[in-house]
Amino acid sequence: MPNLRNREFSLHLVPFHWTDFSGSPKLTSTEVKMKRCDVCIIGSGPAGLCALSAVREPYTMDSMTYTQVSNANAMMTRRSIAGPPQHRVCVVDPNEKWLSEWTDNFKRLGIEFLRSPAIAHPDHFDLRSLLAYAVLSGREAELIESGCAEIRKLHGLGQTQVGLWKLPSTSLFEDFCLYLADQLPHDYVKSYAIDLDRNEEGDYVVKLANGTDVVTSSVILALGPTGRPVIPEQISQVPKAHLISWKCMIDELKPCHEIVLVVGGGLTAVQAAQYALRRGKRVYLSSRRQLVERHFDIDTCWFDKRSTNLHISEFYHLSEAERLSVLKEARGGGSVPPIYMKDLREWEKKGKLTLVTADPDYIGSTDNGKLMIALNEGKTALFDCIINACGIKPDCTANPLIKKITEKFLLKTAGGFPSISVDLEWTKNLFCVGALASLNVGPDSGNIMGARRGASIVANTLECKAWLRDKEGGALANPFQLLWDDETTDSESEID
C-alpha cells in the first residue's frame, strides 16, 4: 500500500506530508494508572478522529496555495524555526479501536455505502485524501455516483466533476480512517471516562473507569449524538418484549416476528425496514408525514463551498433560540436518499412493504400476543412486534460524564446542546466537536464535514497552526513584512 502521508500521487503533487513519531508512541493500555498529555480527546468516532487529525497535522491544504504549502514544508526542515507544536494526544474510548461503535451501527443496519460524499472524511490535511486512498488502493469501484448530476445547482462545482462527490463504501471509509489514525501519533486508552476534575495547577484530570487518571491541559469532547430515545406516546404502552429499538433488532427480532411495524420517518427507519425485509418479514413503515426524498441529510448549501461561508455567518449572528430553530428546520425530521427510495418502491411492488402515513396507536394485545395497532383512517392491523426508529431528542446530560461536568463546573446548555463559545469552548480549554457543537457549528455539525470544520476551529484555538504565521518567514506571514519600518508610526507618516 503506497504511503499517502508522503503525498506524491497522481491527483496532486505535494513535496511531502509531515508526520512526526518522536512523541509518545501509540499505546493501548488498561494498566497505566496516570498519564500526562497536552490534549485528551474523549471519543474515538469520526468526530474524535477529526479532532486528532486537526491537532496533529501541521497544516491543511484546504485554504493554502501551492506556494504556501511549499513554504510550510521548507520551514519544517529548518532547525532555526520551531515548526509545528508537538502536542501529546491521548484518546479515551471504551472500544478496542477507532470507529468501533460507528462500524457496529453500520453493520447492524447493513449499510454498504455512506450517505456522505468522498469529500466528507476526518483527514484535516486534504479534502482529496479519501479519493486518493481509493485510487492508490485500486478500490475506485467502491465509489458510486451520489446522484449529484441530478442536482442542477451543483453542476458548476468543480468537485463534482472529479469524483469528490461520489459515495464511498462503508469498508473503504473504515479502512481509510483506520489508516489515517495509524499515521497520527497518539496514545489510545481503552476505558470509560467517568469524571472530570481540575488539579491545583489548573490542569484537567480525566478519571477513567480502569483507575487511570489522565492529566491534560485541554479536553475535547467528541461523544457523538447524545440524547434520549424518542418513543411516540401512542406506542409507549406496548409490552417491552414487543417494542424493539433498532439498535437491538439483530438480537431481538425473532423468526416468530412475521409481521413487523417500523416507526420513523428518517433514513434509520428505512434501513431498519430494509433489514427486516431482507429477513423475510412482512413490513409496514409508518411515518407522521410522507417520506422526504433528499440526497443528503441537510441541504447542499451547507456543503457547497460557494455558499457555506454565507450560511455559517448568518447562523453565527442568530440567538441561541433562533439557532435551535434552524437546526430543527435544516434536518426537517429526517430524509431519505433516492437510492433508498428506489429500493423501497421495489419492495412495495413485490407486496412485501406497505408505506403508511400515520401516527400508529396501540389499542391492545390479542390473546395470542399480537399487537393491535390503529393506523390511518381508523384502519387497524395486527403485528408481531414494533421496531422503533424515531431517533433521539438532543440532551447532552443523558451522558453520565457530561451530566457530571455540567453540575461540577456549572456549565450552561440550550435545547439539549452545550452552550459553547465561537471557539467551541464550553469553559476554559474544554471543547466540544461533532454533534455536541451544533449550537455554534450549525446543522452540519453532526455529520463528518461539520465535525471536520469544528475540529479545525478547536485546533486554531489551541494555536496548533500558529507557527504558519511566524513573522520570520512563516508560510502564512505577510510577504510585504520586510518593507515595513518598525520605527515609523502611523502618526509620523501622516501628512500635515
TrEMBL record:
Organism the protein comes from: Cyclotella cryptica
Record domain FAD/NAD(P)-binding: where: 191-297
Matches recorded under InterPro entries: FAD/NAD-bd_sf, FAD/NAD-binding_dom
Signal peptide: none
Name this polypeptide is given: FAD/NAD(P)-binding domain-containing protein
